[in-house]
Amino acid sequence: MEQLRSIINDASTIKGKVFALFIQVLIIVSIITFSVETIPDLSDQTKQLLQRIELFCVIIFSIEYVLRIVTAKNKSKFIFSFFGIIDLLAILPFYLAMGVDLRSIRALRLLRLFRLLKLARYNKVMRRFTNALVIAREELILFFFLTIILIYLAAVGIYYFENPVQPEAFSSVFESLWWAVATLTTVGYGDIYPITAGGKIFTFFILLIGLGIVAIPAGIVSSALTKSLDKEPLKEEI
Amino acid sequence: MEQLRSIINDASTIKGKVFALFIQVLIIVSIITFSVETIPDLSDQTKQLLQRIELFCVIIFSIEYVLRIVTAKNKSKFIFSFFGIIDLLAILPFYLAMGVDLRSIRALRLLRLFRLLKLARYNKVMRRFTNALVIAREELILFFFLTIILIYLAAVGIYYFENPVQPEAFSSVFESLWWAVATLTTVGYGDIYPITAGGKIFTFFILLIGLGIVAIPAGIVSSALTKSLDKEPLKEEI
Amino acid sequence: MEQLRSIINDASTIKGKVFALFIQVLIIVSIITFSVETIPDLSDQTKQLLQRIELFCVIIFSIEYVLRIVTAKNKSKFIFSFFGIIDLLAILPFYLAMGVDLRSIRALRLLRLFRLLKLARYNKVMRRFTNALVIAREELILFFFLTIILIYLAAVGIYYFENPVQPEAFSSVFESLWWAVATLTTVGYGDIYPITAGGKIFTFFILLIGLGIVAIPAGIVSSALTKSLDKEPLKEEI
Amino acid sequence: MEQLRSIINDASTIKGKVFALFIQVLIIVSIITFSVETIPDLSDQTKQLLQRIELFCVIIFSIEYVLRIVTAKNKSKFIFSFFGIIDLLAILPFYLAMGVDLRSIRALRLLRLFRLLKLARYNKVMRRFTNALVIAREELILFFFLTIILIYLAAVGIYYFENPVQPEAFSSVFESLWWAVATLTTVGYGDIYPITAGGKIFTFFILLIGLGIVAIPAGIVSSALTKSLDKEPLKEEI
Predict the structure, then answer these.
(1) B137-228, what's its fold?
(2) How far is A156 from chain C (nearest CA, A)?
(3) Does the pLDDT of residue C55 top 80, yes or no?
(4) Residue A205: pLDDT above 90?
(5) Which CATH number is A2-122 given?
(6) Is the pTM here over 0.90, yes or no?
(7) Domain limits of chain A?
(8) How many CB pairs under 8 A join B and C?
(9) Which residues contact residue B186 at a Cβ distance below 8 angstroms, ignoring those fewer than 6 apart?
(10) Which residues from chain C sit within 8 angstroms of residue A186, using beta carbons?
């Protein structure tokens, strides 16, 4: 029992490492399977193979989930912990799909993506990132807020400039919001863009202000991270 | 009277928080109403509903405005303060629109957007951002200036390369300016781009220099913010 | 004479400020004139007006240039200084154009753009930026070098993936270079992009590495600037 | 012998500098030759000229390679070192191509690109960059990992929103991955983009989170570099 617990939960022993690696490989296999299934016009043979791989993954994940509960010192704490819920959500859709219609399965399968987060389980650097987010919490909220206000103002502005000339593309403020998102993030698909002189000048000023606002959160987080990079090693060494 | 003042102006008491939240929700409701109104081909029923919501919002905002004047210690100071003017501008278009033609209403409604800024009223992090802007003031002005020079030089350069081959797209320096804005901000809609070898090589060099110039302001502000993040908490604790 | 010198060269006196502002406004007027001239199908009246404004600007700039030589303590030093040459280049095309054919004027007019740099003459923040560039000199050269290598490698790679399928768009490594520039700078006009699975996967990996490389120079310069921002004020106060 | 060694390996002497420069120029010539060869419909005369330049480059590179082995103090160490292998790979395709079919030459020629890395050989700033990468190693791995997870989640999400409406563009999760890469890197070619309201709102939220994640690695590296910029000069002066 004690040995089983160390294999499942302690990635510092050799057996634990093998177990963790096996589960991680299986998560990636199951995600690839999920992706391949979406390819249209697959042969029946391929479909069957994918279903078998899926079945195998779900069985292993179910066994893993049961083992985690059994070996947990505080059972209810594990079940209701973040990863406990994730683990359950990763296998639940399969069992639920047996009794219900096919459409709903499709939507429920999306939950399987949370398995990816399992990979992060063993990653200790994540904590430093979380710390950086906590330190810069208020700044980040302000900038996400400013970004949303700016996107809205840009959308309303461009609506007044472009709607009379392009009533199809800029049909409402909501359509203009799509333009504002694609422009201020500098994605610029090119499916919708201003053609009037006023709209172009407005876009220039919005970009001049907007590029700064949108790029600042990444700058804050990376600065906070570099700072924590300086301090953390010291704490760990002492 | 004293109690009313604390409800309206002090968001630290429970009643004050409820009042502030109520006004904020109403601002968002009024903005959504404004956005929905721009959707073409709305049913008469929907239009009527939107008008009623709008009427309700304006009435509440008017009452709020009057209460703010009444409870203000220095009445004229509030009326001519930034938020005093914003509050007035948020309700004025509605009363003005009663007597004038419909076209002008549309333009005046844009002012209602300033209501969004009311949300920022209670936000204390904003001050830190303003400080960062003040510290980096001169640098920011220089870089916005350099950005504009660079955009102009890029526009003139590309005009000489592309005008003979694409007289429609690059018809004048002003059209080329639009290309320069879309390119140096890396939006790149794809509505206008160089096709000559010279124009492409020119674009490469302009981007090599330009990307740095355009990205620097965001870097300066985020660095200044992270710095103020280090110092501010200390000041507040002492 | 001494008074004239202070008016022309010293922007700290009132008369000097007025003179500097007058010259700066004239530079902007002359640039707008230059831009408006490129608009096709201008009326003869407008063309004539533009020519008169141009004539006026050139006369003032010529007088300014002569005065700067006259008031310079070291005449030959001014003539061969950066701004001395710029000032000459700004007026020379006009006098040269009187005797030669029209085509060559067009190309020479580009030199007039250097007038824009005159605006920077009085800007002291520029020095801090130059300092930051000097400090990060070696890093910047390395990254511009890495950027060019990366763009070349990306171009050759995509050429092998896309040339067999899109022989028109990716006809040679040179055409692919244009794709690499537009992609790694994230401009993405959409005039040329990979369509094969191999080309798309290659693009993903090139972007994963490339985005970092391309964005780093801006990060280095802005960090160096923020640092100089901390130190400079102290030096100036002492 | 000792003199030959210093010419080849020591770029601090005059003869060594000339030799290094000569090799670097030849590398660039050989790369240009390689690029020009990909242009379709070259005249036979040009092709012959290119072949002669290529022959010349390979001969010089072969002599250089032999000299490096001869002058190396530890011959086998050089042969199996990074640059020893690169040097061999740069000339090997030419000799191999003599006996085999033309198709395979084309693919092998790609190896010649590694010659570019020779230019970096003499660059000492590279070490500082490598140091910065080592310091930020764990953070960079985490963020590349988060980027890949995010791209995958974005692809699956958009697949569910857009597949029913655009079965051609978003035919499978793999096609959606291409969209996710082009969007989160903000390249935005415009060959594939969401058209449903749900897909557009999803894109907005993915960009809000994603822009930060994708831009952070560049921020970390540039911060680490600026820090090493502060410390390095001190070490070198002492």
Answers:
(1) Helix Hairpins (1.10.287)
(2) 25
(3) yes
(4) yes
(5) 1.20.120.350
(6) no
(7) 2-122, 137-228
(8) 114
(9) A186, A188, B211, C185, C186, C187, C188, D186
(10) 186
